[in-house]
Amino acid sequence: QARSALGPALDKATGTLLYNAAARLKDPKHLGFLVGYIARREILTDLQLSAALEYVRSHPLEPLDVADFERACGVGICVTPEQIEEAVEAVISKHRAELLAERYHFNMGLLMGEARSQLRWADGKTIKNEVDLQVLHLLGPKTEADLEKKPKVAKARLAPAEKQKVAVVENGDMGTETRSLLEQLRGEALKFHKPGENYKTEGYVVTPNTMALLKEHLAITGGQVRTRFPPEPNGILHIGHAKAINFNFGYAKANGGVCFLRYDDTNPEKEEEKYFTAIREMVEWLGYQPYAVTHASDYFDQLYTWALELIRRGQAYVCHQKVEEIKGHNPPPSPWRNRPVEESLLLFEDMRKGKFGEGEATLRMKLVMEDGKMDPVAYRVKFTPHHRTGDKWCIYPTYDYTHCLCDSIEHITHSLCTKEFQARRSSYFWLCNALDVYCPVQWEYGRLNLLYTVVSKRKIIRLVETGAVRDWDDPRLFTLTALRRRGFPPEAINNFCARVGVTVAQATMEPHLLEACAREVLNEQAPRAMAVLEPLKVTITNFPAPKVRLPWAVVGAGFLEISIHTQCSPQALEVLVPNFPADESRGFHKVPFHQTVYIEETDFREEAEKGYKRLAPGQPVGLRHTGYVITVQNVIKDVSGRVIELEVTCTKSDVAEKPKAFIHWVSVPLACEVRLYERLFLHKNPEDPSEVPGGFLSDLNPDSLRVVHNALVDSSVRSARPFDKFQFERLGYFSVDPDSEEGKMVFNRTVTLKEDPGKA
């Protein structure tokens, strides 16, 4: 086309413009229009071409307003060298003082940018040459000082406490945060269309009614961003859903919009009230409040009316093929595809009245999807009462039919879903346009997976049924209820999702990355306490308080004697322990320190080997927070030779030689149970037959749970409630389990203090 106007030989500049036009234009119907302007040399620069492409993208309907197009693209505008010289001179005059002070260290790009803003269609290279010339005239040639690199200004680093500031998000209002969620949700989110500009999205289908529908949509929403999180209420949310929650609620928040929580309750056979409750509870636990809580079933009447309209328009029909016949990508065409509209209307009414059994009739839509699937099902017969509508319906809509229409009803601007739904994008656009209703834009992103786990509902049910785990909230799983029970803070999960980011590619992450996020948050949130998992009794023979006879209780047959005081004796000392040693302004708690204390069995050895720094005969240690150093005087053993008690003396640390180590301890403690968790599966991909030929149930880690029944913890945690979190000094981060009861607390280890190098 260009050669017909310019002849066989094209210059390089014209060839480059033609190539860019063909490569960047998404809708080829306007290609000839743009080539004509390039061939006639009315579009001469890449800047003009970019403006032309944007204009075409923003005006999808024919015919284009030629005069408006030419104004928008600078056609016929000629910028003279004199205009460029005057514009650059004005900009340099404005910044003259800074230029003289900073000389060639001044940001010359600022001068060019301001000159370009005055002369939009001027050639960029000409402006740059003029800036260089006038700066040289003002400053003269570069000196040695000008050639030296400008020293970088060090950025102020936030204190650790500042990094972890978080708050509850309610659609858009967040109290404190370290960086915007839009910055965290990087990648694909930055390419999203603005509300009302759906037609600018690649692949979006524009019909003669599109612009009018978008205008009506904007009038209803006021240009507000609207997203939705649409879970099926037939299972518990998992870590992948946390990414979806953060993306949907976070993108709305970052753009001053709102997010709906919409239950996709179209399959009554598998839905239970406990799932509805748990889903909303988890959304709110992560710190989000939905703009509105809706259900697909809220719209059943409207969806049914639209199904009738679809049949009337010849776009849907009642089919009697069996489910087995239409499975897969190459099923035989339906012999009922071209049945008369009136017949399909009558049969669909019979479906609604229950005259067909389950599997005897479906309503199918007339389209072919991206993956080759033909005529997806819109309605099927199910004689199952619905938890909200009761026995009103015996036909229920499918995801392919329901999802886009519910988005349309709620005027969603960005329908964000994971990559496996990309094959349904064509049916999404097709159905809205077939009914002439507002059509949102579906955007797909890569889902988040974790190694060493399974998240499929069916597989988790199998784990529960076989007794491998207790329930959906077993702390070895990666459901959100399980993570909460294990003690993961919601902020850690949100931070993890933000670090993973939002990209088209699927993200498969190691669990230790999530654990690292938990450590960062818990280090700032979890107050310190002391606990002993394997207690060894230590009696301080010269304890600096009068000896009195105290009541004893022996816990466990054949177990080391554990002294439990009914109340703190006045003869015991009280030790102040900082809640957060790195920041003592956050307060202290009191811990009793008595003649009898308990230490970890592993903190004592009868012989101090090379490199061993803790307690041993002849090798004293300090007791954390007490100001005392203890020295072994006597080792007491049972008949089997096992050490059951140590007799020690104590010395004030300010007069004793500094010990090699300080160990934790408890005195007048509380008995508790501690549950220590490891990975549930042995292999990274337990569902991969090549890695685990015997199936995921054969890959269970026999050491995924170790229960310590007779651990001891200091009395400062006595009033803790389920899900309260602590750092047990030197042991890790722990959370109070809901199984706790009066007299016997239960703690779950969330993560160790440091990452196990073997897991990284």
From TrEMBL:
<feature type="domain" description="Glutaminyl-tRNA synthetase class Ib non-specific RNA-binding">
    <location>
        <begin position="9"/>
        <end position="124"/>
    </location>
</feature>
<keyword id="KW-0648">Protein biosynthesis</keyword>
<dbReference type="InterPro" id="IPR020059">
    <property type="entry name" value="Glu/Gln-tRNA-synth_Ib_codon-bd"/>
</dbReference>
<dbReference type="InterPro" id="IPR011035">
    <property type="entry name" value="Ribosomal_bL25/Gln-tRNA_synth"/>
</dbReference>
<feature type="domain" description="Glutamyl/glutaminyl-tRNA synthetase class Ib catalytic">
    <location>
        <begin position="224"/>
        <end position="523"/>
    </location>
</feature>
<keyword id="KW-0547">Nucleotide-binding</keyword>
<comment type="similarity">
    <text>Belongs to the class-I aminoacyl-tRNA synthetase family.</text>
</comment>
<dbReference type="InterPro" id="IPR050132">
    <property type="entry name" value="Gln/Glu-tRNA_Ligase"/>
</dbReference>
<dbReference type="GO" id="GO:0006425">
    <property type="term" value="P:glutaminyl-tRNA aminoacylation"/>
</dbReference>
<dbReference type="InterPro" id="IPR001412">
    <property type="entry name" value="aa-tRNA-synth_I_CS"/>
</dbReference>
<keyword id="KW-0030">Aminoacyl-tRNA synthetase</keyword>
<dbReference type="InterPro" id="IPR007639">
    <property type="entry name" value="Gln-tRNA-synth_Ib_RNA-bd_N"/>
</dbReference>
<dbReference type="InterPro" id="IPR020056">
    <property type="entry name" value="Rbsml_bL25/Gln-tRNA_synth_N"/>
</dbReference>
<feature type="domain" description="Glutamyl/glutaminyl-tRNA synthetase class Ib anti-codon binding">
    <location>
        <begin position="569"/>
        <end position="650"/>
    </location>
</feature>
<dbReference type="InterPro" id="IPR000924">
    <property type="entry name" value="Glu/Gln-tRNA-synth"/>
</dbReference>
<dbReference type="Pfam" id="PF03950">
    <property type="entry name" value="tRNA-synt_1c_C"/>
</dbReference>
<feature type="domain" description="tRNA synthetases class I (E and Q) anti-codon binding">
    <location>
        <begin position="662"/>
        <end position="737"/>
    </location>
</feature>
<dbReference type="InterPro" id="IPR042558">
    <property type="entry name" value="Gln-tRNA-synth_Ib_RNA-bd_N_1"/>
</dbReference>
<dbReference type="GO" id="GO:0017101">
    <property type="term" value="C:aminoacyl-tRNA synthetase multienzyme complex"/>
</dbReference>
<dbReference type="InterPro" id="IPR014729">
    <property type="entry name" value="Rossmann-like_a/b/a_fold"/>
</dbReference>
<protein>
    <recommendedName>
        <fullName>glutamine--tRNA ligase</fullName>
        <ecNumber>6.1.1.18</ecNumber>
    </recommendedName>
</protein>
<feature type="domain" description="Glutaminyl-tRNA synthetase class Ib non-specific RNA-binding">
    <location>
        <begin position="127"/>
        <end position="215"/>
    </location>
</feature>
<dbReference type="InterPro" id="IPR004514">
    <property type="entry name" value="Gln-tRNA-synth"/>
</dbReference>
<dbReference type="GO" id="GO:0005829">
    <property type="term" value="C:cytosol"/>
</dbReference>
<dbReference type="InterPro" id="IPR020058">
    <property type="entry name" value="Glu/Gln-tRNA-synth_Ib_cat-dom"/>
</dbReference>
<dbReference type="Pfam" id="PF04557">
    <property type="entry name" value="tRNA_synt_1c_R2"/>
</dbReference>
<dbReference type="Pfam" id="PF20974">
    <property type="entry name" value="tRNA-synt_1c_C2"/>
</dbReference>
<dbReference type="Pfam" id="PF04558">
    <property type="entry name" value="tRNA_synt_1c_R1"/>
</dbReference>
<dbReference type="InterPro" id="IPR049437">
    <property type="entry name" value="tRNA-synt_1c_C2"/>
</dbReference>
<keyword id="KW-0067">ATP-binding</keyword>
<dbReference type="InterPro" id="IPR007638">
    <property type="entry name" value="Gln-tRNA-synth_Ib_RNA-bd_2"/>
</dbReference>
<keyword id="KW-0436">Ligase</keyword>
<dbReference type="InterPro" id="IPR042559">
    <property type="entry name" value="Gln-tRNA-synth_Ib_RNA-bd_N_2"/>
</dbReference>
<dbReference type="GO" id="GO:0004819">
    <property type="term" value="F:glutamine-tRNA ligase activity"/>
</dbReference>
<dbReference type="Pfam" id="PF00749">
    <property type="entry name" value="tRNA-synt_1c"/>
</dbReference>
<dbReference type="GO" id="GO:0005524">
    <property type="term" value="F:ATP binding"/>
</dbReference>
